Amino acid sequence: MSVSIIFYDIPSTHPSRTWSPNLWKTRYALNFKSVPYKTVWLEYPEIEGRCKEIGAPPSGAKPDGRPHFTLPVIQDLSTGAVISDSSKIAAYLDATYPDRPRLMPPGTTGLHRAFEEAARMQLDPISRYGPPASHKNLNPLSAEYFRRTREATWGKTLEELTPKGEEDAVEWKKLEDGFGKLDEWIRANGEESSYFMGDALTYADIFVAAYVHWIQLVLPEKWDEIKVWHQGRWAKLLKGLGDYETVV
Amino acid sequence: MSVSIIFYDIPSTHPSRTWSPNLWKTRYALNFKSVPYKTVWLEYPEIEGRCKEIGAPPSGAKPDGRPHFTLPVIQDLSTGAVISDSSKIAAYLDATYPDRPRLMPPGTTGLHRAFEEAARMQLDPISRYGPPASHKNLNPLSAEYFRRTREATWGKTLEELTPKGEEDAVEWKKLEDGFGKLDEWIRANGEESSYFMGDALTYADIFVAAYVHWIQLVLPEKWDEIKVWHQGRWAKLLKGLGDYETVV
Q1: Contact present, B108 and B197 (Cβ < 8 Å)
Q2: Rounded CA gap, B62 and B57, in Å?
């Protein structure tokens, strides 16, 4: 099968180049589906222009109402489809390549959508820790853009976003409890379960692993704590996804 | 099969007697599994004593730290098990009666658990409307207990809980948007899907239908609005569960 999909990702100075959790969701998904693709790297200020050029729909609206163009985006040269948003891309890949391994087994697409909402809520404290740490390893063009736009949205500097002192203790405990809830969901399938659907790795695992991988990469000192939570559950999850982290 | 399960429920003056969403979850589940059961009705002040008597575990802790005993509880005379909490009861029924229709198809118990969190969040505004309306049809013993304990927990009267005026407009819109999100999850399986797992009715549908049934019963004027939302989706959902609403 020749390359049929272009996958747009945001580079960093990390050896893997890829880093963002939302981009990891799609990269894991593409590797899991085993659909040939190649990466095109875009710095943050290049995203909107390229999206408009290839006809990628915005993923939402900016606070001022203008369309917001974000990655991941894939462009499938074999069908002409251009899809934005990791969740929609996963559904597209299952629908378009049904003979490849299913990211979401038949009948579970709606449950997966609900899972994303629920898991995002449990992992919410990560959004205070991850972005400032990510910023440190962006290339200059992206770093300037990222700081300017994020600080305008949040109304605080990247440095102010990171919880400190007592607030750090509270937020970090919230994150541990959130992962604890995810651990419960896995064990609801049976105490020996490794994945959110028991023995089978699905998009739910990819969704969570994308955040875990992000933290491992940008906050190695925090990863040292997370990797021993819940009997090493999250280190094992990343290991389970090891076959699907190739960057091509 | 002779009656093997006692199901504890809270009565009201409605013709169906049953009314509470959490109790509807278990009643629907028992009827769906087609496991013979009979209802034992307990007024609110009788719940804690009976739970302790039969060894039902508390479902959580009260604000002051004492154990909180709540219904639903089922007592399975054939196994000796006594289970509290609608979610645990559903898992118990699937594990103990695997030859009966599955509430949660194999591999989906963890996703269902996440679904419950996500759906509860979307339906959150209901908790401002439902309890005051429910109170009106409780028997005097339960009504006094319900008002006293709920008002202590919330720090406001039942009458103050119900959103009014502008706040009503805001909260009701939030609820409509929440149902809109649930509608999206159903449609994620395909536009023609009727249920959260596509064509198959599962515990996710029961979970949501329990709240819908509650509103239909205690707030008929609000139900007139909900039943036309999303192309009549929620009226159809209740109809789909019509075979499982028997009260025995």
Answers
A1: yes
A2: 14
Cβ–Cβ under 8 Å, residues B133 and B13: no
User: Domain B112-244 adopts which CATH fold?
Assistant: Glutathione S-transferase Yfyf (Class Pi); Chain A, domain 2 (1.20.1050)
3-state secondary structure A36-66: CEEEEECCHHHHHHHHHHHCCCCCEECCCCC
Pull the structure tokens for residue B198.
């596509």
- Tally of CB atoms within 10 A around A232: 12
Q: Which residues of A touch B91 (CB under 8 A)?
A: 188
B109 and chain A in contact, CB less than 8 A: yes
**Cβ–Cβ below 8 Å for B119 and A115:** no
Q: Is the ipTM of this complex over 0.90?
A: yes
Total beta-carbon pairs less than 8 A apart between chain A and chain B = 98
Name the CATH superfamily for B5-103. Answer: Glutaredoxin (3.40.30.10)
> Residue B3 above 80 pLDDT?
no
Least Cα separation, residue A189 to chain B (angstroms): 5
A5-104 and A112-244 agree in CATH topology: no
Is some CB atom of chain A closer than 8 A to the CB atom of B233? no
Per domain, the residue ranges of chain B are 5-103, 112-244
pLDDT digits (tens, 9 = 90+) for A180-232: 999 999 999 999 999 999 999 999 999 999 999 999 999 999 999 999 999 99
CATH for the stretch A5-104:
3.40.30.10
Question: What pLDDT digit, counting tens, does each position of B31-63 carry?
Answer: 999 999 999 999 999 999 999 999 999 999 988
Task: Among B89, B113, B191, pick the best mutation site for testing chain A contact (most A Cβ within 10 A).
Answer: B113
Query: What is the tens place of the pLDDT at every residue in B48-104?
Result: 999 999 999 999 998 889 999 999 999 999 999 999 999 999 999 999 999 999 999
